[in-house]
Amino acid sequence: MKSYDAIIVGAGVIGAATAFEMAKKGLKTLNIDAMGEAGHGSTSGSCAIIRVYYSTVPGTALAYEAWHYWRDWAEYLETEDERGVAEYRDLGCLVMKTDLNDNLSRHMSICDELNIPYEEWDEQQIVDRLPHYKLDTFWPAKRPEDNGFGEPSGGKIPGGVFFPTGGYVTDPALSAHNLQRAAEAKGASFLFNSKVTGILTEGGRASGVQLGTGETVHAPVVINVAGPASNLINEMAGVIEDMSISTKAMKQEVVHLPAPEGFFSGGREMVISDSDIACYLRPEKGGHLLIGSEDPPCDSHFDVEDPFSAEWQNFTDQWDVQAMRQAQRAPTIGIPGSPKGVVDLYDVTEDWIPIYDKSSLPGYYMACGTSGNQYKNAPVAGKMMAALVEYCEAGNDHDAAPLSITMPYTGIDLDIGFFSRNREINQDSSFTVLG
Prior knowledge:
Helix content is 23%, strand content 24%. The protein contains 9 helices and 23 strands. It has helices spanning 13-24, 57-71, 73-77, 105-114, 123-129, 172-185, 230-237, 318-329, 378-393, and strands at 6-9, 29-32, 49-50, 88-89, 93-96, 119-121, 160-163, 167-169, 189-191, 196-202, 205-211, 216-218, 222-224, 247-258, 271-274, 279-284, 288-293, 303-304, 341-349, 355-358, 364-368, 404-406, 413-415.
């Protein structure tokens, strides 16, 4: 097969964005994906929420920069897609103040530092916009079989913070296809229905990949953007022992419930994050609400060794748990007798902060641990990976002198070393899908 400047393992939204950014630099790239189309792995199961509230300054800065790309999505792509352009709905995000998030004091402080707009809402403002809501507290989050489930804990949600720079993408798989077409217009190539079974090396550095067919594809640079399969690819490359941060595939279930009439006052929809009941939600097509879990300690977590197996692809009682926890906040929500929603995998690290880094194998790079909260950052992640490869392949030592880039929209300098494979577990993280 042909030789390339870089092979990108994975064609999800971040893999396709990486191809686009590298192709814009004149590099000849090939994305290889086990699925049949771009974005048909875990990207297609993403809730595709675009938000700016994170627990760390770099995480928040990255997300705020990325919001501008989604706002200007068609302009960013620089080309047309025969399937149309993915729609970004800029609705804003409401986050409930709780003791768990320290009433969002840190988040607001970070936003002040980065000049990110937000509004503080009191209880009445929340109920005016969400008339079906009851603002009793229920923390700590429980499961239906736990004592006291559904019983208020005696307090009241004191208010919330509304972030106007947020919303969601209605079709995440289409956004990856958009990036594929944008990358192809710059000379990139894509290979689907092809599973990588080995990482090739020569002269002490990466030299390509082997496919399940036995064929080999050669390139001096290999980038692992394999989502839930990223740990398997890192094992093939023999780079895991050098890493202090690891990744794993974790099963997730997302609930679709019918929205009560008038759920959003005046039809003014929004994304909502509520750590008191450990759920987040956004509007979903067909008059539904999409409800996800913020992964509280009471819930079991199902780690998956083989992301290509069928062992994880069915709903469990976790679906009911999330539906019933959300119904504590809005008792008028109806819960159907049979589950509807999405079952998919996250690719997560110990602190839920991704790895955007080189590795101990020269020429081998990683954009891993990204599931759950990095879909929104794909355009900037692609730009970072393209810059990182260029920096390291020019002979620079990213471990000793980490690359920093100035983000074009916000002008903020971002230290990519923050996302190192060798960092200590970041205690500022929420240790949840919120990052």
